[in-house]
Amino acid sequence: MIDYTSATLNKLIVHKVGNKLKQEGYFASKSSPNLSEREGINANETLMNYFLSSFTYDRAFRFDHTTDLDLNEVYAYCKVIFEDLQKFNEQSINILKHLYNKSNHPNVKGGELYIGYLTSCFITGKEVDAIGIFKSENKDTFLQVNTESDNVTLNFDKGINAKKLDKGAIILNIDKENGYKIYTIDTSSKKADEAKYWTENFLSVTDYVDNRYHTQKYLNICKNYSDSYVKEKTVPQKLKKVEFLSKTLEYFEENSEFDLNTFTSNVFKGDKQEVKTFEDFIEKETLPREFLIESTPIKKERKKLNEIIKLDNRIEIKIKINPNEHQENNLIEKGFDDEKRMSYYKVYFNQEL
Q1: At a CB cut-off of 8 Å and minimum separation 6, what does 52 contact?
Q2: Which of 25, 73, 77, 182 is a plausible cystine mate for 91, CB 3.0–4.6 Å?
Q3: Per-residue model confidence as pLDDT tens digits over 27-56
Q4: Of 26, 21, 14, which is closest to residue 197 (Cα–Cα)?
């Protein structure tokens, strides 16, 4: 998570960009906008909230290129800005032109392109500068109520909702040699080919590999392994799957460092065949056997820990394991009723909650 409590929007410029395929063109502003106060609204505070509040910071990225990182256009422009802030406006226009050249999908919407320079951002206690690239595409209808003499008038206008950022990227001045550390957001692209426009075609980013990345990667692998681990769709096997995932999360929650040997020993309780099967499963992945564990991905996975049994009569049975409770596989029984000629589940419990 990044702390923006003390952050300042040091520079801001707003351009307009259209769809290149439709030959809509672009408009390059030559100076910063006038951020005037109006009716008690703090313009700087409103903009900072608009630009930053939608980011979740679940996944970090870095700029990438197949041959040479310096050939990544946005990386090159951002590097110039970080090295010489006097070239901010000039490089913002280069970013605008690059975005326009990549806006060649028929469904790409035109809109406003905001490029800002933020100072006094803090990440893990370290103060860093950042470049923000944001795009607004969708307009909402706003209602204005005015009092004139003895009448109340209603006016309607189209504008940008300051709580709904469509696309954005925050480039932190960290790890320049490897493509900086970046967080992105895209809330308006519903289809995969449209989503590629912002992250792949324009920014050209790939995953930023750190301890958080390794933590999430191992959790994802364990989820995938649990699907192959349970090949029979029976209640005991479904419970076994959830219990495996529960033990996995317990290990991540109770340890600050990951070690593959201690992980498999804890989760599989000395079952050498199971350990070998798991290690064979992850062999195709390029992952470290040791790393520091990040807690944020674990909390989110814990909330999703369950297995759902879906029945053809629109009834679903959700099995959710509490890590502090050791449930046995005999809490649910499956049978067949000869009279009704239907299958059934019998669930044992102490009391309703």
Answers
A1: 4, 132, 170
A2: 77
A3: 999 888 876 666 666 778 888 988 998 898
A4: 21
CA gap 234, 332 in Å, rounded: 10
312: which 2 tokens? Answer: 């053809």
51 within 8 A of 168, measured Cβ to Cβ: yes
Tell me the C-alpha distance between 187 and 127, whole Å. 28
Cα four-point dihedral sign 283, 284, 286, 287: negative
- Best CA proximity match to 72, nearest among 179, 167, 186: 179
SS3 state at 25:
coil
Q: Are the C-beta atoms of 11 and 85 separated by less than 8 Å? A: yes
Task: Tell me whether residue 89 is exposed, middle or buried, using C-beta atoms within 10 angstroms of its C-beta: 0 to 12, 13 to 18, 19 or more.
Answer: middle
Coil, strand or helix: which one is 204? coil
Burial profile 210-228: b = 16 or more Cβ within 10 angstroms, e = fewer? eebbbbbbbbebbbebbee
Summarize pLDDT for 247-304 with one digit per residue, the tens.
Answer: 898 899 999 999 999 999 999 887 888 899 899 888 888 889 999 999 888 888 877 7
Q: Which two tokens stand for residue 50?
A: 């608009």
- What distance in Å separates the CA atoms of residue 115 and residue 132, rounded to the nearest whole number? 6
Give the E-state strand segments of the chain in sequence order.
Answer: 2-3, 8-17, 26-27, 61-63, 111-123, 126-136, 140-148, 151-159, 167-172, 181-186, 205-207, 257-259, 290-292, 307-310, 316-319, 332-337, 342-347
250, exposed or middle or buried, with CB in 10 Å at 0-12, 13-18, 19+?
middle
The count of residues in the chain is 353
What pTM was estimated for this model as a whole?
0.79
Q: Is the pLDDT of residue 239 over 80?
A: no
> Is the distance from CB of 187 to CB of 109 less than 8 angstroms?
no
